[in-house]
């Protein structure tokens, strides 16, 4: 298949080769007793070369509705940051799909770029992990190609509030109570609710089906004292942006505190000069014009080159630990 010249040129600018390909398609988890309807995107291994496509104003390189290739494929579920969306890490999802993974990313109800009605609220902190379990349920039981997934190889990728979400899913117990240190001075709506005496209306959800997790700049970290992370037993690859590049107090920076508290030493990566948003998808010139706050990195920081290394390390991490978990 011949790629149009302008698409090929853009692929070169972004450092993407025509060997990278991922199918992508929207799905919906219906509303039910467990929660509201959830919109998701699923990336899958694809035998066709990528095409430029527009997704809510962002530029993706993928193949819409491409037939899934492969059997017994590992599954990675993705959790976005506060006020994020399921396409925020589309280049990482595509790289994983090209490496043979199925990747499912959702929009957390009430905490997305288009629906901020419950952003920072106590209900979101409680329900985000449940969203991820519902996503796994759907991919294993309701997705059209569920027979292609290996249910013994499920991983999680979480960024910022998604990092918090991932820590809970793999066994962390957030300390959600009145008088929590650092909460009194936080601007989080959840902290104000806790200080007023409101309590979670249900426990947070753990999911033992997740066998490995990539956690990036988890936030908030003050809800995880060391003793509340002791139950985490799965391998973790932990990434941190550079505090020197997040002097504006941007939520999500950084991961050093969690690195020190995890009971099993994680595969820890500190990224010099990385800003919090440097982990979001690489930007085309159009993206940079329309979302400069998200696309602007520190001087001399090359997001495209960094994402090549990020993707290689993430793929290698999941492959290694899925192989180890499969050993008798």
TrEMBL record:
InterPro entries for this protein: AB_hydrolase_fold, FrsA_esterase, Peptidase_S9_cat, UCP031982_abhydr
Annotated signal peptide: 1-21
Domain Peptidase S9 prolyl oligopeptidase catalytic residue range list: 93-176
Name of the protein: Prolyl oligopeptidase family serine peptidase
Organism the protein comes from: Bradyrhizobium barranii
PANTHER family (UniProt xref): DIENELACTONE HYDROLASE DOMAIN-CONTAINING PROTEIN-RELATED, POLYKETIDE TRANSFERASE AF380
Protein keywords: Hydrolase, Signal
